[in-house]
Amino acid sequence: MPRAKSDKDRKIFVLDTSVILYAHNSIMNFAEHDVVIPITVLEELDQFKKGNDTKNFEAREFIRLLDKLSKDNMIHNWTPLNGKTKGNFRVLMNPENNINANIVFGEEKNDHKILNAALHLKETEKNRKVILVSKDINLRLKAKSLEIYAEDYETGKIKNISELENTGRFVLEGIDPEMINQLYEKHHVEAKLILGTRKRKANAYYILKSDKNSVLAYFNAEDNTLERVDKKLAYNIKPKNAEQTFALHAILNPRVKLVSIQGVAGTGKTLLALAGALEQRREYKQVFLARPIVPLSNKDIGYLPGDIKSKLNPYMEPLWDNLKFIQNQFKESDKEYQKITELVNQEKLVIQPLAYIRGRSLSNIFFIVDEAQNLTPHEIKTIISRAGENTKIIFTGDIFQIDTPYLDSQSNGLSYLIDRVKDHPLYSHIKLEKGERSDLANLANDLL
């Protein structure tokens, strides 16, 4: 955001509640421009401040931040934000306007009160550009219908989502067949003999092809070598394609502590992660498998019948289904089958909503987070920051299938993770492309 040349060029940004719940420090990210918080936003945040969810944390932190910034000032007056390069902020009470959004849209609701705040500023600050910032697409559309400039909160968004598609796996053709033969014979070769001057990324995977043969390989940045990657069984689950082979290799690689696996439904993300966890069960104290709860139609789960366990079970069933699939690879009399039952009963393998695990210290844990695209960047950071000694974390999800209303492919936590951590020696990312659930499932993904 370029600096304004004069006071006239300084914009006024009106923040919606959705922006605050996404990032409590968003008020600090508008350079030298001024920020207005409608009083309705504070009233809504008051409803969110209780609870253990991330949105509750964001609400509480923003209220504390506003209190710290305002000091002894009245918050309805312009108050400087910290730093000479920052603008000012104020809280705007419910104003009276020539145009009333409640009347225009035929209903009195908080969204319309926020629109009225922006309309008031547009009327009273005629020499300045007023912009409503919201992660609510519908609210932005309503604002534009009232001739109010409106935009998404852009800080932290991935600018070029297509770059994430090319992270972690590469296909190289025209490779010397003798080099491929050496990989088969010796298991590893010096990276420079095959990659030459190409840029090397830590924990990257390669499909190396010549006119005679091909091989799957992994770049070991620590030894500066390419290692052959073979298809291996993990608790009787065998990868069905090259990408699954790479994903399982990353899951089983003790040098890699953080893995993200991206792909559409049916590509085997969760199944491979869970199979890899079971294969390494002796290396960790517990295996946690969790996912965020995103109720259908974004209704609170409180409206569902039954106790808390029966309310949550439907959201956890896909995870149990994967566990049952792995268990059913064996006969009931097999020790591997019985071991899974034993792990569950002894709580060595725990399947829970992510909210139940939030706040815990994760030491000596193999932690799988399913549907990670429904997390915010802050939630991803919080989970990773809880990792103690001998902890490995696997994030799985599809960045193009977002179930929460205020996230998209550019702003969700999984995209943020892939973009920010790529090339780190502790991290590996794999994109699964081919559906392996069934031909019928592939038909749905490809044609419907």
List the topology elements.
Elements: E1 12-15, H1 17-22, E2 34-38, H2 39-48, H3 54-70, E3 79-80, E4 88-92, H4 101-104, H5 110-124, E5 130-133, H6 137-145, E6 149-151, E7 169-172, H7 177-186, E8 188-190, H8 191-195, E9 205-209, E10 214-220, E11 225-228, H9 242-252, E12 258-263, H10 269-279, E13 286-291, H11 308-327, H12 335-345, E14 349-353, H13 354-357, E15 365-369, H14 377-385, E16 392-397, H15 413-421, E17 427-432, H16 439-447
Parallel strand pairs: 1-2, 1-5, 2-4, 5-6, 7-9, 12-16, 12-17, 13-14, 13-15, 15-16
Antiparallel strand pairs: 3-4, 8-11, 9-10, 10-11
Helix pairs in contact: 2-3, 9-10, 10-11, 14-15
Describe this structure in words.
This protein is of the alpha/beta class and 448 residues long. It has 3 domains: 145 residues, Rossmann fold (3-Layer(aba) Sandwich); 73 residues, Archaeosine Trna-guanine Transglycosylase, Chain: A, domain 4, CATH 2.30.130; 209 residues, 3-Layer(aba) Sandwich (Rossmann fold). The protein is 36% helix and 18% strand. The chain contains 16 helices and 17 strands. The strands form 3 sheets. The chain has a 6-stranded mixed beta sheet. A 6-stranded parallel beta sheet has the order 14-13-15-16-12-17, with helices on both faces. Helix 10 packs across helix 11. The longest helix has 20 residues. It is elongated, with a radius of gyration of 26 Å. About 2% of the residues have low confidence.
